[in-house]
């Protein structure tokens, strides 16, 4: 199934999963109010000075993933220790409470990282002119 909007993606799930996904999206938006919610790679995501964070649902878990660099997972490795992780994502079991405060922290950290990257690019382009 191909999705055209975030709402279409959310609507493809049962009501309880939709509610959890909306909570995750709201937590990210609260942490980074300037971020824009978008659909990217057929997943709900937020963009802020580039791609910020993706979120999704699967049969047994919810997932948060980030584009490179992946330093956010190293910085928060102690808080993320209870959860299964890959290089790009962390999985939150569907049968447990979703750690919304932790998700906010991840989003805030990644937003600051994106701001620094954008500022660095801006300064590099100024020095070339």
UniProtKB/TrEMBL annotation:
Domain YdhG-like spans what residues?
18-107
InterPro entries, A to Z = YdhG-like
Q: Which domain of life is it from?
A: Bacteria
What is this protein identified as?
Answer: DUF1801 domain-containing protein
Provide the species name: Cohnella zeiphila
């Amino acid at each position: 199934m191909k999705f055209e909007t975030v709402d279409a993606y959310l609507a493809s799930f049962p009501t309880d999963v939709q509610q959890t996904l909306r909570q995750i999206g709201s937590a990210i938006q609260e942490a980074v109010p300037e971020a824009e919610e978008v659909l990217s790679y057929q997943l709900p995501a937020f963009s802020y000075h580039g791609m910020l964070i993706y979120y999704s649902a699967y049969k047994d878990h919810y997932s948060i993933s980030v584009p490179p660099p992946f330093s956010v997972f190293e910085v928060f490795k102690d808080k993320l220790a209870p959860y299964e992780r890959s290089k790009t994502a962390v999985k939150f079991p569907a049968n447990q409470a979703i750690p919304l405060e932790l998700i906010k922290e991840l989003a805030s950290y990644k937003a600051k990282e994106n701001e620094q990257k954008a500022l660095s690019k801006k300064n590099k382009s100024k020095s070339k002119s």
